[in-house]
Structure formats: C-alpha cells, structure tokens
C-alpha cells in the first residue's frame, strides 16, 4: 500500500435537506438545501491527509475490500480510534486499544485475531507503529 496525498477538487455537490430512508423513496426528493465539497467533508487538514485503498476484510463490515480510507497523520492515536499501522513492515487497518504496556490492534471481523504489541521505556510504539488515524471511508459499489 502506498499513500496518495490528496489534491484539492473543485467539484461541488448538492446535499439534500432530509435523511434518506434505506427502504422506501422519500417524497421530499426534490428539495436540496446546500452545496458541499467532498474535500471539506472528508479532509480537515489537507497537508497531513492521505488516501489508501484497502485490501482485505479484517475491518468488515465497516471497512471492506476495495474501500478507500482517509488517513490523517496529524491526529493523536488513542484507544477506540481506527488507525493505519505498520506491523511487521506491512500496513494494517485496525481499532487501537491501549492497556497498560500493550497496544492492541483489533479487527472488526471476528475471523481475524487481534495483534498485541508490547511496549517498554525504549520502544515508542506510537512513533514506530502508528502511521495515522483513519478519519473517513469511501465505499465504491
């Protein structure tokens, strides 16, 4: 996986002023309330934001094979956040849990095991393992 730095887009889309039902059509479908840019919706800090295409389903159903994740390198990694990490020289997307002297990388798909990384005074896991925090996901069907 190689990061691709985001580039600004001039595409502006209309946003409906109502929530869309996933079952039946909404009779208000002709009402549009504001214009939005996907850049401003997905990218808060362009200089530290990168996109990655995901391979695999360890974070399914939230992040699936072929999804594009938005990763911000300027956000601090904390328990409960989904992170892009480098473990054994490979990128992985996992939920981070910090417990004592361990960083635990958890898959959302229960078929995949968690990965534990021990830390000590000489090993800064945050600097050496965490590449960035996932702030969004784009799924293309």
Give a brief outline of the structure.
The protein has 141 residues and is mainly beta. The protein has helices spanning 38-42, 125-129; strands at residues 4-5, 13-16, 32-36, 49-53, 68-72, 82-87, 90-99, 102-106, 115-118, 130-138.
Task: Fill in the keyword field for this structure.
globular, 10 strands, two-stranded antiparallel ribbon, eight-stranded antiparallel sheet, mainly beta, 2 helices, 141 residues
Give your account of this protein's structure:
A hairpin with a 2-residue loop joins strand 7 and strand 8. The two termini are 21 Å apart. Helices cover 7% and strands 39% of the residues. The chain contains two helices and ten strands; from the N terminus they run βββαββββββαβ. The strands form two sheets. An eight-stranded antiparallel sheet has the order 1-4-5-10-6-7-8-9. A two-stranded antiparallel ribbon has the order 2-3. The chain has 141 residues and is mainly beta.
Number of helices: 2
Rg calculated over all Cα atoms: 18 Å
From the N-terminal CA to the C-terminal CA, the straight-line distance is 21 Å
Calculate the mean pLDDT score and round it.
Answer: 81
Structural class: mainly beta
Q: Characterize the main sheet.
A: 8 strands, antiparallel
The percent range for strand residues is: 35-45%
**Major sheet: order of its strands?**
1-4-5-10-6-7-8-9
Looking at the structure, what is the overall shape? globular
* Poorly predicted tracts of residues: none
Helix content: under 10%
Total beta-strand segments: 10
Listing every helix as H and every strand as E from the N terminus to the C terminus, the arrangement reads: EEEHEEEEEEHE
